[in-house]
Structures are given as C-alpha cells and as structure tokens.
Amino acid sequence: MEIKYTTLGLLLYIAIAIYFLTFVIRLLRFTKLAKALYFLGFAVMLVAFGYRWYQVRHIPMQNLFEVFLTLSMLIYPLSIFCRRTLQVGGETTDALIASILLVPAGFIFNAEPQKLPPALQSWLFAPHVAVYMLSYVIMVKAAVQAFCHLFYSPNSESELPVSFEQSTYRMVCLGFPLLTLGLLLGSWWGKLAWGDYWGWDPKEMWSLASWLVYVGYFHFRYMFGKKHPRINSSWVIVGMTVIIITLLWVNLSKLFSGLHSYAM
Amino acid sequence: MLLLVLSIVGAFYGSEKASQFFNSLPLIVYWLVLMTILVAGLVTFRRLIRVPGLLLVHLGCISILVGAMWGSNGGYRLQKKFFGIDKAPFGYMLIYEQTAENSIVAEDDKVLAKLPFSIYLEDFRMEYYSSRSYLLVENQNGDIWQIPDEVGAELDLNEGKIKIVRIFRNFKIDISSDKKVTTDAAGAGMNPAIEINIELPDGISKQKYVFAKFLQKSYSDDGLKFTYVSQQTSAVKDYFSDVIILEEEKQIAKKTIEVNHPLHHGGYHFYQSSYDPEEGQYTVLTVYSDSGLNMVYGGYLMLSLAVLWQFWFRHFLTFFKRYRNGD
Q1: How far is B132 from A117, CA to CA, in rounded Å?
Q2: Which of A116, A257, B1, B128 has a CA 20 to 30 Å removed from the CA of A15?
Q3: How far apart are CA A227 and CA A233, in angstroms?
Q4: DSSP assignment string, A12-71
C-alpha cells in the first residue's frame, strides 16, 4: 500500500471520503444532505477522470488503476438512472461501493501513466472496455439487490414498490446486453489485432463464463424462477463472483497468463 | 451449464492447451450436440420462434457455432475432403524488404500453402513514442524556428516550405546497389535522423537528411541551417509493413499493414506480427484463413441486435406507446 502524493491521488482520497460520508449520512437518514454529497463525490470523480484522460492522452481504461477509477465514476449516474427509470433503489450501498472501489485505485494499483502499446491503439478500445465497465457496475448493483433478497425476509418491502427479486431481474436485464456487447466487441477486436476472434485466452474464457452464468440465470428464472426465487438471486451472486475473478484474479494472478496481461 | 464448467476448466489450461482441448474429438461431439440442442429448442419451444428477439438470439448462437466449426482445424479437413478447398488455416510469412513472397509457412518453416498471389514488402518501419524531440531551423538572419518531429509537420518560411517526411530512429543507407536505399534499422536508436522536403520559392523541391549526431555547421545553399534535437524513448508506438499485392507480376493493391489494420486479400488476413530485431530488414506477418468468419460475424450481429431488442428497446417501445396513450 502506498499513498499517492499527486493531484490525482488527492482527488481520489477526497472522493473516497465524500462517498463514505454519503453512505454514513444516508444511514442516518439525512437524505437531502446525502444527495448533495453523493453528487459532489461524482463531480470530484468526473474531474479525476478528466484529469487522468488529459494526463495520459487517451481514454483512461488501460490498466487496473484506470479501470477502478472509471468504475467508481460510473456508479452515481447509474444510481440516478436506476432510481428514476427502473424504480430500483440502493443508493446507500452504491455510495459505499463507490468508496470501496476507489481504495485499491488510491492505495494499491500503480498509477504511473503508460503509453498505449500498438495492440491497444484501436477505435474498439474505448467501446469494448467502456461497455464492459458499465456492465460490471450494473451487475454489482444487481448482486446487491440479490443479496438483499436472499438475506432479508422475502416479504419485507424495499425502499420502492419493487421487490428485491424484481429489482435484481431489472438490473440484470439492463446489464446483460452490455455484457454481451463487451464480449463480442472484444472478439471482433481480437480478430483485428491478433488475427483470431477467439484465442482461448483465460480472460476470454472467464468472460464467456460470466456471460453464461447470466444466460443460465435467464433460463432458470423463466423455467423454475417462480417456484425457486432464491435460486434466481443465487445465480446473480455467482455471476458477480465470476466477474470479480475475470476482472481481478485473471489480471493479477500468475496462474493465468495471456494476451490481456498488460491490463495491470 | 456444461459449457460454463468447460469454460472455467479451459481458463486454467492456458491458451494453447485450451485450444487443443476444445478442438479435440470429445469436444467436437459436444459442439455438435450443443448445436443440435439449439436447433431442437427452436423447433420444440414455439415461443422461441414467435418472439423475434429470442429467435434471433438462438439463431445468432447457431450461426456462431457453425462459423466457428467451419473455421476450425476439423472444418478445414472437411473442406479439403469434400469440397477440394485447400487452405492453410494459420501460418506465417517472412518477407524481406524489396522482395516478394507467396508461401505460408509453419513455425518450423514447413510450407503449408502457396498463395495464388505474392506480397512484396516495400518497407518495414517502426514508430516510437518520442518526447521533447524537435527540429530547429535557423536562417542567416539568426531567426530560429522549432517544429516537433512529427511526420507531416510543416514550416513555411520565405526561404522555402519545409516538411518532415520521415523520422529515423536508426538511419542506415544501403549503397551496395545502384539505387541507394535508406532504412530505419531496428535496435537502439544509434543514428536518429529526419528526412525533410524543402520546397524552394522557385518551385524546386529537394530532399535533405538531418542527423542528430552530425551537426550542420554552416548554412546550406537555401540559406538555412537545420539541427535535429532528439530525445527518444524506447516505447514502440506502432509497426508498419508497406506492402504491394502482386498477381502475375501486376500490382493489384498497395497497403500498409499495422497492428489493428490487417490486410484482407484472397481469403486470408495478414497481420503485423514480428520483425527483424537486428536490422529491421524483414517483417513477419501472421496469416489466418477467413473460412467461417462471415458466419461468425453474422452471428455476432444477430446476437447483438437480439439482446438489445429483447432487453432494452422492446421495453422502451412499450413505455413510449403507453406514454402516447396517456397511461
């Protein structure tokens, strides 16, 4: 662990503090103040994201530091969208997750700017990674709803008139097309960059596995979901676990070496 | 579920072993069974046919499987046996500068296929990320201008228009033949240089090389003095192979192959893969046959449109209709 004595580091630490404070104040039910703080945290993250973009001269999604920065930045707009459009709540947990996501970026991952290697100099770099980042954030939120469904009483009401199970379903419906697009854009890019649309790379295999978990979720929910709603939610939590493995274990572990190893 | 488990198992194998595993006979049987199940599902569950999004999702998956199987090693064996199509699924081409090549070879240099056309390598070059490098231009009045060392950078002066045409990290010139050939040799940047084009006021153009290690001490005929200040990094920005496609000695097309910009010709894709690390005199292209690719891409398109429609746009349309009806 190391403290980043840079402008970007400072912005991250401020954002961590604001997001965590948002979480605490929401728990204490000071809703208006929490909303204002949550927005402020997002504003700080937006500045950090823009600053990093200017610093590296390309969209900041190349390594794990930039990925976690982006993930945290995306949470606030997603929260608002889900509340207004899908009637899915959970902003309290969202703020906590935004704070947690910034901890490895702020203290662990290397933030040294890197030049883009030739393979990443493609117009597909931004859409492939951005779409995946957005889908991951959505699936995290889905997993939180699934967790609430499993570990709270099934009859308890959530903040809004949509059950946890239904909220989970809506979030997965929102994120699944993005997960699909991420997988297909990555395959297309692989063909352009390396010659093969499927190289059996560990990252590709785990990405396919994460996609298949949600395919399984939809099939199970359609066929048996009404009788076994708790298993529906279990699928989503398994999906989140596979996503975490795809994002972290594959990149960080020496167990999996492949073409995606540069994303560290 | 089985495919999910196989994917996780395959992830632990690593690329090469996973490729062998998923192309082995038991897995070929599995792929065929999976495809049969998908087709049977379409026939059995009428809803899959009635609902456009679901139909397209499953058709997309079938198309991807068919394309992938057609483009697999087994697929190539079937192509050769039943249709007489003899293509190499994968291989390499090593091409020296100023020479043509039409053989696809394996890693052990065994010739896998001969192409009905040749690829002529005009030039192989590399571009590096350079920082704080620039060209200084001074006239006889003592005025100095600075332009960044970027190809295409221009400076318009009374004495003439100066344009940077090429940047060399390690300039070398081959004077063994009648035609002097300049190259950017691979390896450390031992002789950085810039090629500039000077267009004089009378319309005459001339070419000049400015070397970072050999300072110009006096003004040249055009009244200008050039100094190249080079502070190069070792980070490679990109690799380029300038090639010409020849069929029966005739030039068919010209292209620059670089990473993310392969050449597609004659049923093959040619990718920038490697190069001569010593002198930069040859390039290595990875060659892939495009069999089955259109079916795979077609499947991708169907799958993308299907999920977007089924999970997003269908609901937006319903919401919009309700909104219009005042619900």
Answers
A1: 19
A2: A116
A3: 13
A4: HHHHHHHHHHHHHHHHTT-HHHHHHHHHHHHHHHHHHHHHHHHHHTS-S-SSHHHHHHHH
In the structure, what pLDDT confidence band is assigned to residue A11 with cuts at 50, 70 and 90? very high
Residues A98/A12, Cβ–Cβ less than 8 Å: no
- Of the candidates A181, A195, A209, which has its C-beta nearest B304's C-beta? A181
In 3D space, the residue among A168, A151, A158, A155 whose CA is nearest the CA of residue A236 turns out to be A168
Neighbours of A84 (CB within 10 A): 9
Q: Which one of B22, B240, B259, B271 would you mutate to disrupt binding with A, by most A Cβ within 10 Å of its Cβ?
A: B259
Taking a contact as any Cβ pair under 8 Å apart, which residues of chain B between 3 and 32 contact chain A?
3-4, 7-8, 10-16, 18-19, 22
Which pLDDT belongs to residue B272? 92
CA distance B205 to B225: 17
DSSP code of B153? -
ipTM at complex level: 0.89
Which CA distances in Å does A164 have to A87, A149, A152, A227, B175?
Answer: 11, 5, 9, 16, 77
B127-164 burial code (b ≥16 CB/10 A, e <16): bbebeebbbebbbeeeeeeebebeeebebebebbebbb
Candidates B25, B28, B312, B153; CA nearest to A177 is B312
Both tokens of A222, joined, read 């359609």
pLDDT tens-place string over residues A145-195: 999 999 876 555 555 668 899 999 999 999 999 999 999 999 999 999 888
pLDDT in tens, B9-30: 888 888 888 888 898 889 989 9
Q: For residues B39 and B47, what is the distance between their CA atoms, to the nearest angstrom? A: 13
The conformation of residue A155, written as its DSSP 8-state character, comes to: T
